[in-house]
Write a structure and sequence with these properties.
Largest sheet: 5 strands, mixed
Number of domains: 4
Strand content: 35-45%
Distance between the termini: 95 Å
Strand order of the largest sheet: 2-1-3-4-5
Number of strands: 32
CATH class of the largest domain: Alpha Beta
Structural class: mainly beta
CATH topology of the largest domain: Rossmann fold
Radius of gyration: 37 Å
CATH superfamily of the largest domain: ABC-type transport auxiliary lipoprotein component
Amino acid sequence: MKKSCLFILVLIITVGSVCAQSRDNTVLQIDNAVKTISRDIHRKLTDERADRVAVINQFIFGGSLPPLGSYWANNLKDELANMPNKSYILLSEGVTGADVIISGEIAEIADIIRIYTRLIRQNDRAILASFSSDIERNATTTAMLASSRSGGSAYVPIDAYEPDSWENPVPFEIGVEENVTAINRSIHAEGDEDFFLIVPTSNSRLVMETTGNTDTYMEFYDANTRQLLAENDDGGEDTNARIFYNVEAGKRYIAKVRGYDETTTGLYSFQVYVLPLNANASTWENPIQYSIETDRNAQDVDGIIFGGDTDFFLLIPNSNGRLVMETTGEIDTYMEFYDANTRQLLAEDDDGGAGNNAQIVYNVEAGKRYIAKIRGYSDETTGLYAFRAYILPVRAGASSWDNPIRYTIDNRQNSQVVNRTIFDRIDADFFLIIPSRSGRLLMETTGNIDTYMEFYDADTKEMLTSDDDSGEDTNALITYVVESRKRYIAKVRGYGDTTGQYGFRATYIP
């Protein structure tokens, strides 16, 4: 009865999807090995003095007692108890009074599990006999090893695909949809790395990802040159890794999976599937044609970014005006704005919109062709977004990069204040400053609204510095050492949705 109950317990703790026949075969293999060892032990004890007293003790793995060790010890006890013509006494438990202790240890060796069984003389700890039994390592036997090691760290079994390496990667048959069959593997020890060989049969977008509760890190290589093509930490669900990559038919690739750091171990699953390359994908030569509206209720065009994707929108304004282009959604987007004919970059933005969305405002000309290029902030960025563009009439006196307000620096302390108005959240003023001498320049805003100032090299449009509230109350203030006759731009806008009147001034300071 004890043996049957323990067998049920082993089946309950077994993890993984293993058929009943496989379990039965594994347990039968263990039972047969126990019978063989029992006969050897019985023969050894019988050859010794008739008054021998023996006891079955523990079978240890990695410093702890796994279910496989308990199962082995209990079966061994049952077999020896039922041996006929015993000339020795077998204690049911405890080592007190025993002459011989029967115990051992379990080890993983390549694709087998080896169980060492030893007969140890109690009084001097001498080994009277030693036996070894090899059991197939599969999902059932590795699950029977699952237990807590001393020190509290969880035992992680070696998976059935070890040992693998650069020279001996595990081939993976690529699926064509997300529910492709995964390979179950483990990061079983510190520094363990798993290698997967991937050979696409067609040009396609490849998706590689891990699933499970282990924090994984993935690297993707050209298998022939070992050039690193992509890498990812948490691009998948929770702390799982995910990589998107456009691959070539017949080319050999390697995906390498490890724990996030040297100490990370645990179970995970790996899968690879392809997404067809989008026949309608936009390019410089084949952009998405967008019809510009004249108000903020412009049409949204939905898009999806897979890692490394880029969308191109063709914009041809019907009138001169301030063109507002922006993305909406939950992913972090990056926008670039070009002259479509020359491909000159006119403006770019990361988080100028709400949240992590991009927004660009640019004074455009009627009938001219422009391109708005949208991508994820990084190659790992993936998700849905929407793009829209609308045009607002150019206000009289409005400034821009191309038509800035010329500001003349007064050498006196009370320099001239230029009063301006911020009309909406996309409004900004541009002040062109050409210092007559090198020195330390102070630029600040005055008034009651919350302003934000950016300071640029006017020729390269490189931002040199920026400020929010360093001035009085919520005003902006910047000091910068400038060069004589060099061209600079001070750009002032409201913070967030701030609108209203403010003043701008600049002066030399000691």
